[in-house]
């Protein structure tokens, strides 16, 4: 894209700057539109599973319901509790939303459609996703209310518990791929399964890792059954209790952007990303971004399905699963996979 703007008469510095801004907008604007639509899809899936209709009034089939909700919160008054720390209270939703968008900079939508194709893309996403908890902690502390404060403490403990096991799971993927670059990880999955299937998940040592990664994704994004930070039966609404108007909406946008990120990471790391499911030449005529979006939508449907059917864990169950089940299993698989790759000459 930089070359295109240079052809219009710009020098390299200005062409690079304009191309970068254009790339950011090409990711951020469709992402915001996608967030609005997946909230609608989320509610429709819940309704279908519960034998209800879901949104069906605003626009054809209720498609404009999310935009009506967005307009409503935009027109509401922002109320700040008198005892709150005003600066941090307002900064928390901004930080949550900004961090959620920043992670998308290294996501490859196809072999060439990526804003920053860096060699440590996977480490970058792991670091950025860890920062998302700061928005929750800041909002809980700044609200000067006990329920948001309890939610903030839960969020910090939950993030630490599942980030550790996610890190070991990603080590297993990196061992097979030999790189931290997300595009190269996708390419390494071509024909991986019996020379036919483009996916790591077909391997018996990596399938359990994907199952654990999917469950950890639910915990990382505070989705049911791990939504202990927003447990309405215990904490009113958790860290969002004192928020209203656009500050509340920014939390929702950041939350769903993180959910979409985890869905797309499931596809990229284990299910072939922008590659077609089968290594068959005619399937490569379909653009890679179409395959990636289909896989991402499938994982989002699974997220919604779990939310509509699985009851919420108790907090002690959440901690036990993270520390006593996922952590030792993922660490054990790092050892087993390393030994397997050494024995088969993968490192040779």
From TrEMBL:
Complexes and interactors: NDH-1 is composed of 14 different subunits. Subunits NuoA, H, J, K, L, M, N constitute the membrane sector of the complex.
Gene: nuoH
Membrane topology designation: Multi-pass membrane protein
Assigned keywords, A-Z: Cell membrane, Membrane, NAD, Oxidoreductase, Quinone, Translocase, Transmembrane, Transmembrane helix, Ubiquinone
Source domain of life: Bacteria
The UniProt record lists the keyword Membrane: yes
TM region positions: 14-41, 88-106, 118-138, 159-180, 192-215, 249-271, 283-309, 321-343
A molecular-function term among this protein's GO annotations: oxidoreductase activity
Cell compartments where the protein resides: Cell membrane; Membrane
Annotated family: Belongs to the complex I subunit 1 family.
Reactions catalysed, as given in the entry: a quinone + NADH + 5 H(+)(in) = a quinol + NAD(+) + 4 H(+)(out)
Pfam families assigned: NADHdh
Main location: membrane
E.C. number: 7.1.1.-
Task performed by this protein: NDH-1 shuttles electrons from NADH, via FMN and iron-sulfur (Fe-S) centers, to quinones in the respiratory chain. The immediate electron acceptor for the enzyme in this species is believed to be ubiquinone. Couples the redox reaction to proton translocation (for every two electrons transferred, four hydrogen ions are translocated across the cytoplasmic membrane), and thus conserves the redox energy in a proton gradient. This subunit may bind ubiquinone.
Top class in the EC scheme: translocase
The organism of origin for this protein: Qipengyuania pacifica
Record bears the keyword Phosphoprotein: no
Protein name (Swiss-Prot/TrEMBL): NADH-quinone oxidoreductase subunit H
């Amino acid at each position: 894209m930089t070359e295109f703007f240079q052809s219009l008469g710009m020098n390299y510095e200005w062409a690079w700057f304009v191309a970068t801004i254009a790339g950011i907008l090409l990711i951020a604007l469709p992402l915001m539109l996608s967030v609005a639509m997946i909230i609608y899809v989320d509610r429709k899936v819940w309704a279908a599973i519960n034998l209800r209709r879901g949104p069906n009034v605003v626009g054809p089939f209720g498609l404009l319901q999310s935009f009506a909700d967005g307009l409503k919160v935009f027109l509401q008054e922002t109320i700040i509790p008198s005892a709150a720390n005003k600066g941090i209270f307002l900064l928390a939703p901004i930080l949550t939303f900004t961090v959620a968008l920043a992670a998308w900079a290294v996501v490859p939508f196809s072999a060439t459609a990526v804003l920053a194709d860096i060699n440590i893309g996977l480490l970058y996403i792991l670091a950025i996703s860890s920062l998302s908890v700061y928005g929750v902690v800041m909002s809980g502390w700044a609200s000067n209310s006990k329920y948001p404060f309890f939610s903030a403490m839960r969020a910090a403990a939950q993030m630490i518990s599942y980030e550790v096991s996610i890190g070991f799971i990603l080590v297993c993927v990196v061992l097979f791929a030999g790189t931290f670059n997300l595009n190269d990880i996708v390419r390494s999955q071509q024909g991986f399964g019996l020379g036919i299937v483009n996916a790591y998940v077909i391997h018996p040592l990596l399938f359990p890792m994907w199952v654990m990664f999917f469950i950890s994704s639910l915990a990382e994004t505070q989705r049911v059954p791990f939504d202990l930070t927003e447990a309405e039966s215990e904490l009113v609404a958790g860290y969002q209790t004192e928020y209203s108007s656009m500050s509340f909406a920014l939390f929702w946008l950041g939350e769903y952007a993180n959910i979409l990120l985890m869905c797309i990471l499931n596809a990229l790391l284990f299910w072939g990303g922008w590659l077609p499911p089968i290594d068959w030449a005619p399937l490569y005529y379909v653009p890679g971004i179409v395959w990636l979006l289909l896989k991402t939508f499938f994982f989002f449907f699974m997220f919604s399905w779990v939310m509509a059917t699985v009851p919420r864990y108790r907090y002690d169950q959440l901690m036990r699963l993270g520390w006593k089940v996922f952590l030792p299993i993922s660490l054990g698989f790092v050892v087993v996979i390393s030994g397997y790759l050494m024995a088969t000459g993968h490192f040779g």
